[in-house]
Structure formats: structure tokens, C-alpha cells
């Protein structure tokens, strides 16, 4: 796939969590505008490997915008300049010939760099483990429609459940806050009957874990919502506030 | 009560405290701005002086004055605590940040705007609160209105006050609607109205307050 884009890439290179990183500048040429951003990095990496250099480490898996693995901070924005897409769904036609692109890893106390552009997002897993689950009986699954759920509630829960846990909200937030992620996970369960059994304890447990992981508080700037590739609304953060304080003030 | 202090020290609790104290200060500003706006009645400050005297003598108002300082102090300390906590959460800064792409500059600058407001408040309290409450300079011949006229003869003071009002306007523009979000009050039925009222409130309060030193300095009211 040959193209006519010539780009200057400033990429954060960091050997591991213990060593300090720095920016390296690379020139790539003949990039097709139909390539995804990750394919453009693949082209660079192929060259680096041929030249005997260490390729740029970055997270990726499905490359179709649903897994939440890719995580590049491109020219000052998580997942780059386009709205509602992950880095893998960002195409090089969004850039112009001769442009300089600065690529950084997610920056957060709670997301330490593993190597280059790869960060450790296991803090999200521990927030889920603290309360983002429901209890179900073993045995046969019950009939899907045995619990009546209003369509609006189902839709809202589904919209919250669209969160792929990529961490763009943390990366975008000036406080590296994980409120949008945590609130989406709390919301999807709070809105459904299956989530009621653990509801009174869920928000408190997940917020406590979120704080312990070292994420910041919310300044209500709305940057997370604007940068979220799945369009998760900050209405979920308000719901988390309600869930949390109704639990704090009414639980026994 | 351990449960309460634990919750108020959580990331959500700090914001709840910020929202409650913020809305309390919002309610105070309505009273303060409304009373001061009586100078625009062009009655030589008679109504304004009567109002000021009522505020100085009424025991309920005097008690609320202490509550007000308490609320202001809580708002400042909680803001300071949030700022100190939050800045630790990103130890390595980004080389490039395109903040304007996803949020308003004033929503990201509440700490800075608040600090400017605090500096302004120190000057402002020295000018009027200290003068009227802690000195004997207030007399029948030299009323609070006269003192306002005297203070605002200086163009430097007028500029400081106008800058203070601009900081206040932007602080309120974000703070008003942000407080409701922190309280969990985000709903399609109410949020558009809250945002609208917040914007109108911020602009009206800031513009009215800014108009006072300007009008007095240029002798536009009598």
C-alpha cells in the first residue's frame, strides 16, 4: 500500500517502567492515506526491525475499534483528532503531507508505562473486581425475557456498557480521573434488575478502589466525554455521584 | 461519624463539599449584588446606606456573616486540597496538550480563577469590610456610599475590580452548572435549564458588579 504522505513522527521511547524515557524523531515516507494509524506505525516498525533497531512497542488487538487496547495520545489528544474513534480506526487521511505528529503514551500515575507507548491499565481491572459484578445462580440460564426491563433503561444501560475500558477518559482528563470509566461500569449495572442485589455496596467499593489506584477527582470539564471513542456520557458520572451518596447516607 | 469523614475525604466527597459551599456562596452573591445594585437608583446612595446599616446591625445577618466566612474558608481549603491531590495524578506531563479540542479553558482553570478571586477578595475586604466593621471611620457624614466613591476615584482600583469581576464571571460560568453535576443532578429535564440559568447568572452578576466601580469612577450615578 503505497501513498504520498511524508511525515515526521515524534514518538515517546521508554525502555521500561524503571528508566526515564525521551522522544525520538522518525521520518516516514510513502504513507497511504487509506492506512490506519497503527498500520503507519507498522510500516515504521518493519523498517526499524530491518535496520536492527528496537521497534516501537504499542498496544493493539482487534484493530476494529471494539477491544479498547490501542491507546495513543496523538498531537495532544487521546486517539487523535477524530471524534468517536479509537487509534486503530483513525486513518492517515486525517493528516496532511509534511505534518509532524507527536505520539505519547497515556499519562497517569495509575497507568505506569511498561514500554514505549504501552501502559499498564490493570488498575481498571481492580476497580471492576471491587464491585463491577453481579451474582447469578448456577444451572440453566433463565428465559431472557423473564425480567421485564423498560426499553429506555435497557438502552441507557447498553450505552454505558459500550465502554471498552481503553482509558482515553483518564488520558484526556487534566486530573487523570477515572470517573467516566467507573461511572459507566456502575451505571450499566445500576440500571438493570440484575444489578440490584449488590447495588448498595457497589458504588462505595468501586470509588474506594478508584481512589486507591491513584486516579484524580472530577473537575467536570467534560473532556472525557468529548474524547471517549464510545460516546459515554457524563450523565453517568452524575449517576455515580447519586449511587455513591445514597449508599453513604442510607446504608446501615 | 467515621463513615462521614471517610466519604467526604473521597474524590467524590471533596467535590460534594465544593458543590455545597459553592452554591452557598452563589446564594450570598445574589444578596450582595442585589443590595449593591441599589446605588443605580440614583438617590445619592440613600437606599444603599440603609441596606448597609441593616446588614451591619441585624443579628441574623451578623450570624450569617460568620457562616459565610466559614463557607468561604471551606471552599478555599477544599479547592486547595483538590488542586494538590489532582496535580499528583499525572507525574509526567504531556509534551503536547490540545485542551481546547475537548473542553473550555475556564473549566480547566478553576483553581487559577479561584486564586485570582482570593487575591481580589483580600483587597476588597480591606476596602469595605474592614472599613465598615473594624474601624470607627463610618459616620453620618462619611457613609459607606461615600467610601465607595472615595475608593473608586483611583483608576488602578477600578481596573483591579473589573479584572476581579471577569474572574468571578468565568468562575461562576463553570462553577454553577458544575455544582449540580457534582450533586448528581444531571437530567435531560433539568440540565439544559440549569446551564442556561448558570450562564445568565454568571454574566449578570459579573456585569452588575463590574458596572459599580466604573459608574462611580466616571460619576455616571449621583
UniProtKB/TrEMBL annotation, chain A:
Domain of life (superkingdom): Bacteria
Organism: Aquirufa ecclesiirivi
Every 4Fe-4S ferredoxin-type domain range: 154-184
Record's protein name: Succinate dehydrogenase/fumarate reductase iron-sulfur subunit
Cited InterPro entries: 2Fe-2S_ferredoxin-like_sf, 2Fe2S_fd_BS, 4Fe4S_Fe-S-bd, Beta-grasp_dom_sf, Helical_ferredxn, SDH/FRD_Iron-Sulfur, Succ_DH/fum_Rdtase_N
Reported cofactor(s): [3Fe-4S] cluster; [2Fe-2S] cluster
Family: Belongs to the succinate dehydrogenase/fumarate reductase iron-sulfur protein family.
Entries under PANTHER family matching the protein: SUCCINATE DEHYDROGENASE, SUCCINATE DEHYDROGENASE IRON-SULFUR PROTEIN
UniProtKB/TrEMBL annotation, chain B:
InterPro entries referenced in this protein's UniProt entry, alphabetically: Cytochrome_b-558, SQR/QFR_C/D
Organism: Aquirufa ecclesiirivi
Record protein name field: Succinate dehydrogenase cytochrome b subunit
Domain of life: Bacteria
Stretches that traverse the bilayer: 16-40, 60-80, 112-131, 151-173, 194-216
SUPFAM superfamilies listed in its UniProt record: Fumarate reductase respiratory complex transmembrane subunits
Keyword Protein transport: no
Keywords from the UniProt entry: Membrane, Transmembrane, Transmembrane helix
Keyword S-adenosyl-L-methionine: no
